[in-house]
Task: inverse folding
């Protein structure tokens, strides 16, 4: 019984089945991107145990195909057990060992990346300095206490928790927050402008956005688009309402209010990731090939300042040449400079994609290991073959 | 008898070798030095290129051919070379004799509804079933074409019908054509040289009047009007954003404050000349060329071209002249076209050699040798084109879809030569020449999109990654196709001939060494190539991930092109593991390898077409239909490959041949890892 069990897990048959399933999964996941967009297809097909099918009109989720995590996981077990069971430590198996060890490292590294890596963006105008980047998808509700001249005290709640938690308190804050209304995605319309029919009044009673209309829009799943969640938050102290504020990631407006003589700001904004250092954009350059619109290069000259380490230096970030600093990597992502910025009548700006990925080295390592293994393995074949032929 | 078999390979080699020698011998210009003109450097698409390339790429976009045939020759009169306008000659006409260019049938329209709508059904010239129209014929309908083109353009790509796409293409072609007419001569100056001279003479007075007006003094209205009228046209030309993209920047920097790479359009150069109050020298050369050509004064035209080249050389444009000459030579030799011809011949000979293997061993060996030599000759021509391209671009071999096609064929050719050297069955030559021919043919069609040596966008502008990731992954494609096509050969030979079970016969009539049946040899070839394919596609895919990590901060993003590459790796891994596990034997391996063709075709082309429906039009759409057709045929072959053994002629037990030994699928499973 146990033998059979081990045989099953270590069999080449299982390997082939997993590989074929993986193949079908990758194919389906690629085709599905046409309709679902990259982000959703990725989550449903690859970052999942099962691919579900929901018949139209029903809330059912029927698992119809193993997902990426399941196929990858089984393959991993298969690989490890096959090695334990079948391949002894022999010289002619060295290639196979290396290939499979590298593969295991690659798979685990990718899993770690999936779980641990964080991607965000930092947009800087020329001359601007920032010590934070903004999340691509996440949003947060923040209360900012600016009473200390040296720093701002920020109280932040992830936006998605507002769905469950309707009431929020913090012992350091003298008031409570209540979610009165929430839209997963909405845009704002200035009062007085010709508003579309669907625009509604927010019911806010205070703040700079009091009279602004809310235009609810369907949630987006596309990689390049993001939702701008919007909510009406009522602040109250000891049961008495201080005011209801309309907050939205659609605008960058912070709205001031006063409680007990102390001034605060309230805002809904893209989730910020703070760093112990700051980046200043000194110059953004966008070059094109002569007489064409084909971009030749995007380059940003930046100053990195780290007060903790008492460090200050300048560097250039350009295509295929990111800045790696203190565990984060800054990639040239978007740019509006030169003619483009001049046409839009805006200052030159540059956006970096910021990635924190503790496992970024694993693919490099595993590639080397697997390549050596494959070359060793096939070279053994080739030499054996040529030797046999020449006999 | 023996002698003739020895002579046959030499005969074929000499036949095609002489053709290649003729192609590569430098040709002389006629009375009019149009070739010299075709070599002149200009700047377009962000790169220096000869006039010839400009004409060629424009014609390819408009007419889908690089030349304009001038007469019809029945195809059986193959010795009669039809008269044609070479791309440089056509461009000269468009530039300087537009009224003549307007009468050349270059606009291809084949949608019957469009022809009816424009009332053109009975006009135009028909060639090989396609109808071509002249600009003069289309001119009365331009308003209508523009209107319809605008409407079609406003639609979303998926909503466009075949008619819409045809209208867009025609609209585009007419637009490019009209732009090109104004690229090297101001449209209202019919005698460029004379009009320019008049303008130059009137310039001091004109500028005087201008200054007087600006200072608020009285000035001569008539002088002002006469001088400034053409200038308005120059300003329009100078402001055109299409300059350098739709048509070339023909004037090299001639002023002291211009940088070396600051080529300008004719309009801009004229404006600059007015500012300097002196006509730039290159404009004068161009004007002389224009008028001399238009008035059929060849000597003056030739002199103007020669003096202009001399001027360029003296002003430090020697490198640009060299680039023009070299790319002209590259265009002129059409090496890939000649490689295609040789590959076809090689394929036919290899096939004939295989089929006569048991009936006429000596003839078969002679044909096999011929095909092998032709594969090497074709491969050499192919390699020449590939390396010359790399040199012209200063890039690794693969930079875009076009060059990937060229390189896939090249890789398969090299593998074919290796296999043929080892196995001497004609099968390596058969596969190498077939894949070489098909991929070069695909490349030829891809070139219809325009310039194939375009500049690389910022993220791709890295020779390091192009040389490592792109080259390895493309070699992976090559190898997977090579294995797949060998498998096709296996299935066809197995089903329809008794060859697979035979031992190959040598020239002398004895059996070859080592004692291995044809089928077994094929299986070994496929297995070896799959190993090779696994190695390259895996390393290539991972290198791609590392590049992505370097430029976007993520190793893997499940993007369609990445997934395509991963599919190939997975499939090759399936093949190897299935074989090692004894799940498949020779025949199974072959059907799996054929499916490798499907996967590779999908990730090479299919991922670029995601979201394109079956019922559409245009190049990528046409390619989509071919892709579907290709995949369909491969699936049929796979079905054939799974037919029971009794349908396989090679394995039928009532064998007549000497070497038939029952199923080549073998009774022993290959041990894991092939050890």
Result:
């Amino acid at each position: 019984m146990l033998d059979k069990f081990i045989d099953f897990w270590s069999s080449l048959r299982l390997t082939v089945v997993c590989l074929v399933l993986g193949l079908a999964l990758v194919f389906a996941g690629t085709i599905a991107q046409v309709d679902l967009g990259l982000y959703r297809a990725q989550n449903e097909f690859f970052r999942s145990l099962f691919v579900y099918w929901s018949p139209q009109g029903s809330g059912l989720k029927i698992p119809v195909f193993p997902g990426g995590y399941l196929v990858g996981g089984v393959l991993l077990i298969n690989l490890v057990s096959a090695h334990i069971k079948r391949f002894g430590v022999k010289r002619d198996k060295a290639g196979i060992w290396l290939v499979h060890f590298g593969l295991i490292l690659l798979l685990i590294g990718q899993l770690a990346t999936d779980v641990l890596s964080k991607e965000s963006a930092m947009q800087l105008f020329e001359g601007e300095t920032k010590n934070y980047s903004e999340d691509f998808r996440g949003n947060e509700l923040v209360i900012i206490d600016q009473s200390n001249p040296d720093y701002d005290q920020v109280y932040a709640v992830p936006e998605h928790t507002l769905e469950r938690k309707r009431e929020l308190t913090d012992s350091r804050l003298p008031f409570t927050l209540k979610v009165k209304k929430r839209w997963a995605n909405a845009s704002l319309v200035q009062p007085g402008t010709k508003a579309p029919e669907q625009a509604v009044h927010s019911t806010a009673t205070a703040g700079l956005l009091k009279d602004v209309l809310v235009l609810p829009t369907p949630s987006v799943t596309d990689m390049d688009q993001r939702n701008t969640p919007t909510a009406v938050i009522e602040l109250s102290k000891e049961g008495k309402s201080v005011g209801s504020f309309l907050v939205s990631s659609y605008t960058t407006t912070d709205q001031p209010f006063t409680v007990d003589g102390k001034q605060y700001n309230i805002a809904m904004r893209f989730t910020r990731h703070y760093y112990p250092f700051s980046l200043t954009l000194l110059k953004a350059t966008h070059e094109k090939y002569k007489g064409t619109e084909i971009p030749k290069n995007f380059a940003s000259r930046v100053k990195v300042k780290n007060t903790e380490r008492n460090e200050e230096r300048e560097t250039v970030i350009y295509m295929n040449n990111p800045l790696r600093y203190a565990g984060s990597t800054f990639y040239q992502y978007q740019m509006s400079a030169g003619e483009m910025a001049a046409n839009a009548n805006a200052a030159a700006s540059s956006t970096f994609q910021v990635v924190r990925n503790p496992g970024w080295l694993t693919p490099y390592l595993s590639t080397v290991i697997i390549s050596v293994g494959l070359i060793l393995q096939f070279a053994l074949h080739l030499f054996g073959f040529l030797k046999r032929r020449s006999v | 008898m023996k002698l003739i078999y020895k002579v046959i390979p030499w005969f074929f080699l000499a036949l095609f070798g002489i053709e290649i020698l003729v192609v590569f011998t430098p040709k002389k210009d006629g009375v009019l030095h149009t070739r010299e003109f075709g070599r002149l450097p200009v700047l377009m698409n962000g790169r220096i290129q000869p006039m010839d390339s400009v004409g060629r790429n424009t014609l390819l976009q408009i007419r889908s051919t690089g030349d304009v045939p001038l007469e019809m020759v029945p195809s059986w009169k193959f010795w009669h070379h039809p008269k044609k306008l070479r791309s440089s000659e056509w461009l000269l006409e468009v530039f300087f004799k537009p009224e003549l260019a307007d009468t050349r049938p270059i606009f291809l329209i084949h949608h019957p509804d469009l022809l009816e709508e424009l009332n053109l059904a009975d006009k135009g010239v028909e060639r090989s079933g396609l109808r071509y129209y002249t600009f003069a014929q289309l001119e009365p309908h331009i308003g209508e074409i523009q209107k319809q083109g605008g409407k079609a353009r406003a639609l979303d790509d998926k909503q466009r019908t075949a008619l819409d796409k045809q209208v867009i293409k025609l609209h585009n072609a007419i637009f490019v054509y009209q732009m090109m007419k104004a690229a090297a001569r101001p449209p209202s100056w019919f005698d460029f040289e004379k009009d320019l001279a008049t303008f130059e003479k009137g310039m001091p007075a004109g500028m005087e009047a201008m200054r007087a007006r600006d200072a608020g003094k009285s000035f001569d209205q008539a002088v002002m009007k006469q001088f400034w009228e053409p200038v308005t046209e120059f300003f329009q030309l100078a402001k055109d954003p299409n300059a350098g993209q739709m048509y070339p920047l023909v004037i090299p920097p001639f002023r002291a404050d211009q940088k070396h790479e600051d080529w300008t359009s004719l309009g801009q150069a004229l404006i600059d000349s007015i500012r300097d109050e002196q006509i730039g020298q290159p404009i004068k050369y161009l004007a002389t060329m224009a008028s001399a050509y238009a008035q059929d004064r060849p000597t003056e035209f030739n002199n103007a071209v020669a003096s202009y080249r001399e001027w360029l050389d003296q002003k430090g444009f020697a490198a640009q002249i060299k680039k023009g000459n070299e790319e002209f030579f590259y265009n002129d030799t059409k090496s890939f076209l000649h490689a295609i011809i040789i590959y076809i011949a090689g394929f036919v000979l290899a096939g004939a050699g295989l089929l006569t293997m048991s009936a006429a061993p000596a003839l078969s060996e002679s044909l096999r040798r011929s095909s092998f030599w032709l594969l090497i000759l074709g491969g050499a021509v192919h390699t020449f084109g590939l390396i010359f391209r790399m040199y012209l671009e200063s890039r690794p071999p693969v930079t875009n879809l076009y060059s990937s096609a060229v390189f896939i064929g090249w890789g398969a050719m090299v593998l074919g030569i290796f296999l043929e050297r080892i196995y001497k069955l004609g099968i390596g030559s058969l596969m190498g020449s077939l894949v070489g021919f098909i991929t070069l043919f695909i490349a030829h069609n891809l070139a219809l999109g325009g310039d194939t040596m375009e500049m690389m966008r910022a993220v791709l502008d890295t020779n390091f990654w192009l040389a490592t990731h792109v080259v390895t992954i493309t070699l992976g494609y090559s190898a997977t196709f090579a294995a797949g096509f060998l498998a096709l050969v296996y299935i066809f030979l197995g089903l329809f001939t008794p060859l697979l079970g035979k031992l190959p016969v040598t020239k002398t009539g004895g059996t070859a060494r080592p004692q291995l049946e044809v089928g077994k040899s094929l299986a070994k070839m496929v297995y070896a190539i799959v190993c090779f394919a696994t190695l390259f596609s895996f390393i290539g895919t991972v290198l791609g991930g590392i590049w992505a990590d370097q430029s976007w901060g993520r190793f893997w993003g499940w993007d369609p092109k990445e997934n395509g590459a991963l599919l190939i790796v997975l499939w090759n891994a399936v093949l190897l593991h299935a074989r090692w596990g004894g799940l498949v034997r020779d025949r199974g391996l072959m059907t799996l390898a054929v499916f490798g063709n499907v996967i590779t075709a999908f990730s090479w082309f299919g991922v670029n077409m995601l979201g394109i429906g079956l019922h559409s039009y245009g190049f990528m759409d046409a390619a989509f239909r071919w892709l579907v057709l290709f995949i369909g045929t491969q699936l049929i072959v796979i079905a054939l490959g799974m037919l029971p053994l009794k349908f396989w002629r090679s394995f039928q037990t009532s064998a007549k041949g000497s070497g038939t030994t029952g199923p080549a699928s073998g009774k022993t499973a290959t041990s894991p890892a092939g050890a």
Q: What stands out?
A: The first strand of chain A starts at residue 50 and ends at 53.
